[in-house]
Amino acid sequence: MGWRSPTYILPAVALGAIVSWPALSAQGNDPDWPCIQRKVPVLSLGQIWNGPELPQTAADWSKDAAIAALVQELSARRVSLPEAQQKISAFEESLSEGERKNRMAMLVRGLFDHMNRERSDVISGIARYAHRQRDMATLLRQEASAVDALRAKPDADPNEVALRNDRLMFQTRVFQERAQSLTFVCEVPTLIEQRLYALTKTIAEALEAK
User: Fold this and answer.
1) Could you give the dihedral angle defined by the CA atoms of residues 133, 139, 142 and 148, in that order, rounded to the nearest 10 degrees?
2) Does residue 158 belong to any structural domain of this protein?
3) What are the pLDDT digits (tens) for 81-139?
4) Which of 62, 93, 193, 200 lies 20 to 30 A from 132 at CA?
5) Is 141 inside a domain boundary?
6) At how many degrees (to 10) do helices 158-185 and 10-18 cross?
7) For the segment 140-159, what is each residue's pLDDT rounded down to a tens digit?
């Protein structure tokens, strides 16, 4: 006698829920990129900076303790953008005329280097996360087929079927929750890029005003 209780319908449902994962996750040529947003692992300075060309000395920003600390503070998303922009203005006003252009250029370079690296790290993390999801999807499909095959046996132990079905239900729920969280994680690189652009634009406007 076959199992017809709704309790044992899950394997087919679970298979339907996960079977679309590879198709949804493969954006472009990278099977491990699950986001709708196009994957751009690294930004170029020209994408976010419209001000004057930065001097080579700007690359030494990390040697300036005040600028290094300010870069950390401004890049933290817990600091609101208006507050970060006010901090940029306050820093600019504290500088003498002789040091203003060079140290503001160092701030631009510092923000770019730091936030571009942070963004790249997030993108790498998303790819690793998606790869684990692909592996998990494969295992869930295999287990769903195995439970279906077990349920079809006339002499199947109902306790074993119930146990494996419940375990599959839990694992599928975990998989679906992880898939949903990717929707929010995929926004992070874009948020970092937008914040970086807004901060460097504030610096450019401050330089143009004087």
Assistant:
1) -90
2) yes
3) 999 999 999 999 999 999 999 999 999 999 999 999 999 999 999 999 888 888 999 99
4) 193
5) yes
6) 20
7) 999 999 999 998 999 989 99
> Whole-number mean pLDDT of the chain?
86
Helices (H), the chain: 10-18, 21-25, 45-48, 65-75, 81-93, 97-152, 158-185, 188-208
DSSP 7: G
Give the structural domain span for 165.
55-209
Q: What is the pLDDT of residue 87?
A: 97
Any domain includes 160? yes
| 165 phi and psi angles, rounded to 5 deg | -65, -45
Give CA–CA dist 69/144, Å, rounded: 52
On the question of pLDDT at 200 being above 90, the answer is: yes
What is the pTM assigned to this prediction?
A: 0.77
Tokens for 49? Answer: 């900076």
Q: How many domains does the chain have?
A: 1
143 and 168 Cβ atoms separated by less than 8 Å: yes
